[in-house]
Amino acid sequence: MTDRSDDGLPPEQLPPVSGPLTGQDAAPAPAPAPAPADEIPPPPRSNQIMREILRGSVVTTILAIVLAMVVGGILIAVTNPRVQETAGWFFARPADFFGAVWDAVFGAYEALFRGSIFNERANGFAVQIRPLTNTLGFAAPLIAAGLGVALAFRVGLFNIGARGQMLIACAATALFTFSFDLPAAIHLPLAVLVGIAGGALWGGLAGLLKARTGAHEVILTIMLNYVAFYLVTWMVRTQGLLQRPGSNQPISMATPASAQFPSLFGPQFPLLNWGFVVVILATLFVWWLIERSSLGFRMRAVGENPHAARAAGISVSRMYVYAMLFAGGLAGLAGMNQVLGSVTSGFDGLIDAGIGFDAITVALLGRSRAWGTFVAGLLFGALKAGSFTMQASQGIPVDIVLVVQSLIVLFIAAPPLVRTIFFLPKDESEKSARARARAAKKAVA
């Protein structure tokens, strides 16, 4: 008869006995099952696209600018009357055609350089370098607004509302400067703070709506642009608010002298004022905030993958509000710079002069890095300053410069296209994308 244990099972079917009494180690506990790979969702597609654009190399950026200038040169040559004339006898005298092309393209870009960097034809060193100071003056609001857009990009937000934030900052700054008669040492710093606060509140409103309702920031900021534009337009048409007393024109009062930025190097350089120094300080602040502070680390984490950031205990909604507050404040800095420095004789609802939308281009060109945006703003300031000389001396419309700017954005947003044109090696993301595509085709087959 087979021996049975107390459990009613034969001894050979019982589990082995182990433990301190038997002198054998207990069997290790089974390892916990790994968390499923899809427990943390992948980042939204918009975050992935923005990350791919912002991670492009410096070489790709420079080549995108060169390619845009080449295409712009082709457009200049095609629209030049002399080039069109010599094309009629191209096969008989091709040298005339190529000479006309060279004269048109070189003359245009040489005029662009003279109007933006250095005018060797002028008399006196101060007059010769005045184009450079004009470039810096035009670049100041572009850099400030571009920093606001770039900061939002780093958090995964598309801030299309820099224009509205600028307009609200202009209105807030103007109301403050017109309402109080203060010494310059107090009036100017307070006006700067009021402008920054106005833009921050308008940007923070979009961030709050995004965080509370989940509405897309692109829709919110575009709609707030319209609200800001019509609000400022109404204010400059209303006596007692911003409209110039005794005038029926939609234009504001002039900025008081006590609230104007003084010229940085004297009256012979009227476009360059101390607002440019404030913009440099803002660039330093944004660099420190994003790259060195703990708040910036949390913002960048949300920009990389908001789902992973939320799983790590970061308040994504709070980061959205903070990011739009900072972005609006920087755009407000650009608007304040217009009222206190560039347009002190009075303004209307178009005081932003397209800077709010150009800031998107500047941020993309600068890869949403603080100093990259600074350099991109200088480039666009040079294009704007030089376009007037190019039009005056060569008869080339300013629209050509706008085309070049648009082409820069196009090529910046399509790094694979630039690498293909210049036969550059593909980066790892492109290689992995191709590998996934091939694997998907094999799976389907």
From TrEMBL:
GO cellular component entries: plasma membrane
Coiled-coil spans in chain: none
InterPro entries listed in its UniProt record: ABC_transp_permease (IPR001851)
Transmembrane segments: 53-78, 138-157, 186-206, 218-236, 271-290, 320-340, 370-388, 400-424
Entry's Gene Ontology molecular function annotations: transmembrane transporter activity
Its membrane topology: Multi-pass membrane protein
Compositional bias ranges of the Pro residues kind: 29-45
Stretches the record annotates as Disordered: 1-46
Keywords: Cell membrane, Membrane, Transmembrane, Transmembrane helix
Statement: the UniProt record of this protein carries the keyword Transmembrane: yes
Compartment(s): Cell membrane
Keyword Membrane attached: yes
PANTHER family: ABC TRANSPORTER, PERMEASE PROTEIN (PTHR47089), GUANOSINE ABC TRANSPORTER PERMEASE PROTEIN NUPP (PTHR47089:SF1)
Record protein name field: ABC transporter permease
